[in-house]
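Q: Hi! New to this. If I give you a protein sequence and the SMILES for zinc ion, can you show me the bound structure?
A: Yes, paste them in.
Q: Okay, here:
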Amino acid sequence: MWSQREVIDYALQRRSTLQALRRPGRRLARQEACDADPMLIRAAKHHGEPSNVNCPVCESDDLVNLHYVFGDQLGQYSGRIKRTTELEEMAHAFGEFKVVVVEVCPACGWNHMILSYLLGDGVKRKPPRRQQTVEDIYG
Ligand SMILES: [Zn+2]
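A: Thanks. Here is the predicted structure of the protein with zinc ion bound:
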């Protein structure tokens, strides 16, 4: 297992969103909480990893987790969805990047950020080599 740093658990926010949804004369409409767009639903169906809990809104057992990665060191890979196994490989290949875990229910559209943390081996990688310009040569 790799070491997760600066772990932020969004369980409290998730719970208060669900409470707002269930309260009589509720402050939050179901359409607002279950607002996963078609792109997110598609991502959930193709890249989602099964959650160990059922959907908190519709009880569906199709609830999945998506892992998004972000970071300057990732370059073009920042903002992409990665599988848990890929995260493990990336943790050894990059100094530092952020993982944001989002749970998505394809059945009702419920989606909520549940966890974020930093991964990486802490070794700073060299930035890409700067290309020599005409000014460097003749300036
Ligand atoms: Zn659901």
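A: Residues 55, 57-58, 60, 105, 107-108, 110 surround zinc ion (CB under 6 Å). Let me know if you'd like me to explain how to read the tokens.
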